[in-house]
Amino acid sequence: MKLKKTMVLLASLTLVASLTACGGGNNTANNGANNGTNTPVADNQTNTGSENTGTEGLQPEEGAELLVWESKEEVAFTEEIAKQFEEKYGVKIKIEEVAVPDQVGKITTDGPSGLGADVMVIPHDHLGNAAQSGMILANDEFGEETTKNNTEASIIASTYEGTLYGYPRAVETTALFYNKSLLPEPPKSFDDVIAFAKTFNDPAKKKYALMWETGNMYFNYPFIASTGGYLFGDNGTNKDDMGLANEGAIEGLKVFQSLKEILPINSGDINPDIKRGLFNTGDVAMDINGPWELAGYKEALGDNLAVAPIPTVAGKPAISFSGVKIYVVSSYTKYPNAAKLYSQFASSKEAQLLLNEKIGSIPTNLEALEVDQIKNDPFISGFAEQAKNSQPMPSIPEMSNVWSPVNAALPEIWNNQADPKTAMEKAIQQITDLNNGAAE
């Protein structure tokens, strides 16, 4: 059945209401933190550093040291937060660069061997896998505080089967970055994009009206969902109901396919570094991307940078993915108290404002959303407008089986002009096979 938009959009609109109402290093072992620890700890492990185990009195274990995994793009933020945390609690933090989407997979092997992080940052759609596999601890000590301080949508995203695991720190969706010196007003539709491209494009000089990662489902979800496609039915929970090849999805994917005319580049030849460089120099006028690019784009373009909603697809508002980045505590940690304290500290109002300052992220903390730094920011408000038409990614474990098949189908549709329905039906079969294999 079709994804029930009413319930899904409710979570997204809760986030937007909050927004609009207010306007790693080397792959080395963690010496001392996890070395030798190869069994998960219980959620209710006794605090070994203090007799007071209540939330306000929680203290780190004696001699605690933590390994934190962080993405390359956000490591500067984590270095500052780690410094502040060490000054307050006397706990040394070691930071290792691991891409956010890779962290759950990495803890599967590194956790039991004693080499895994104590604290991870994961996309909320990876939560189901991590929780179901017993790799993370519940957010018990700070659950009430976390729930009170953050948007409802971010709490929903941090919860799996009724248990709060995550400590939300930022919400993300994609939007349209554009260079105002090249086009004063953003296009309303992809027809407008095509019309502008005819006056701007010069492929011989690598000049393009619009560039985005055409082989990545995350950035191309608007071409699936805007016209009625979906991933999983029943609000993203029914693995046996996939709408990737229904009539609506195919309509949107035909729009996607038609854009090859104005971006005659194969998917494999478009990557973040290439696109970033061309946008920064004015050779690409528009980019569909997320808030993690905001700080760099502002530095490069200054007052010429603007953010707007993604153009409409076949006359329908573009529906983008929304995702919440959350801290989670590894169940293999030797120091659960210190890890929980760090997760709470690094996701606080002050921390989220620092993260916004460093990379342009959108906070989930309700008080952070009310400060001038956020509510008067034209870029954040641009993402907020797009968030009105975003859908949270499903967080069931089967979501991890979607990426590879769909990311293989999209280049077939784009590069080879393959029939969208045939390509997506093949992807659905691959996802089904993976789901059934995982269930055996």
Structure description:
- The chain is of the alpha+beta class.
- The chain has 19 helices and 15 strands.
- Strands 3, 4, 7, 14 and 15 form a five-stranded mixed sheet that branches. Strands 9-12-8-13 form a four-stranded mixed sheet.
- It is globular and about 65 Å long.
Termini gap = 25 Å
| Count of strand segments | 15
Task: Give the oligomeric state of the chains in this entry, treating copies of one chain as homo and distinct chains as hetero.
Answer: single chain
Strand content: 15-25%
Shape: globular
Global structural class: alpha+beta
Number of helices: 19
The main pleated sheet reads as: 5 strands, mixed
Q: What's the average pLDDT?
A: 88
Helix content: 40-55%
**Unreliable stretches:** 1-38, 44-55
Radius of gyration: 22 Å
Task: Give the secondary structure arrangement, pairings included.
Elements: H1 5-21, E1 65-70, H2 75-89, E2 92-97, H3 103-113, E3 119-123, H4 127-132, E4 136-137, H5 143-149, H6 152-157, E5 159-160, E6 163-164, E7 167-173, E8 175-179, H7 190-200, E9 208-211, H8 217-220, H9 222-225, E10 230-232, H10 233-236, E11 238-243, H11 247-258, H12 272-280, E12 284-289, H13 294-301, E13 305-308, E14 320-330, H14 336-345, H15 349-359, H16 372-375, H17 378-387, E15 390-392, H18 403-415, H19 420-439
Parallel strand pairs: 1-2, 9-12, 14-15
Antiparallel strand pairs: 3-14, 4-14, 5-6, 7-14, 8-12, 8-13, 10-11
Helix pairs in contact: 1-17, 18-19
